[in-house]
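Justification of computing resources. Each target in the renewal requires a structure prediction run like the one illustrated here; the chain below, 355 residues long, is used simply to show the kind of job we budget for.
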Amino acid sequence: MCRWITAPLCLLGTLLAFSTQAEPLQAIYSDWQVSCDNLNHCVARNSQDGQELVMKISREAGPEGKSSVSIDYQRNSDEQSADAPVAGRLQMNGKTLSFNHREWDVSKKHLSTNNRLVVNDFIAAIREGSAISLAGKADPAQPVPPVISLKGIKAALLAIDAQQGRVGTKTAWANRGTKPVNTVPPIPSAPVLPHFSEPQALTESEISAITQNAATTIENNDCSLDPSEREVHIFALSSDKALMTVNCDMGAYNLFALGFLVNRQAPYKMDDLALNMPFKLGEDEGPPELINADFDPKTGTLSTYDKGRGIGDCGVSSRWIFDGKAFRLAAFASEPSCDGYSSGGEWPVLWVTQP
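Resulting structure tokens:
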């Protein structure tokens, strides 16, 4: 059901041809996941099932791209209430890491910095390591201490450098060179969305005619739900077009629907709804499915939310705007790692637009 954006490990031979728009990137390198949107803003984090320590590294595109690093201890049990802050207990290769409180924002279970020089120094210090562990009093209920695996971090950093055109420059994290800062490409521009004007609402006679036509047109083998259980929703898109969705299949946490663009006048011609992605969805070139779909008739926005599993810590979501002829992608987010981190549905963003 879920489709993920992938990229080969070897990026140097296929660097992006930088233009006004960038191709999003999402890839997993051993224990690290990289997500870059179409403005080449990139975020990397360690991804391990059941992990309690999470490190996130982010960087914006452009010669002076802002960057940040954060480490969070996600365990919430009461047994840890008396423990010392995380910042004084993190070790790499048996040595305690040092965090200057003037340069890092430090609390009991969190530390972060957006000081570019501090970020660069920290990355240089850890990129050759194997793991960062949390030292301190052993918890009987926790036989293995919390660990941030660094396996794959160099590949992740190289992927970010390549995506942002930094390889061989003085700004690179993984493969620094002598090229000056001004050779790094600027931030790409965000696509501009069309304006949607709310059309005149559908009349009862239009709704009746469209529904009757659909009942004789939709093949029963397209839907697993019994015809009596299918919900049909019809919305006005323009003076001559309407959107119709038909609930066709239901899983434990996902509702699947079929979508159609329908003429508002006889003979009420129906066309399958086409959601054309402006970038490739991994190896699967098919369009996104209408899963947990919702439509806002005021803004012309069609939304999808495809959960990879019930707790919602992985999946894909999208928003589309009708431009008078077709739906255009307004936003897209994807979380391929079902590891409990993004359980709030705040998945990595891969596509952004401007109004």
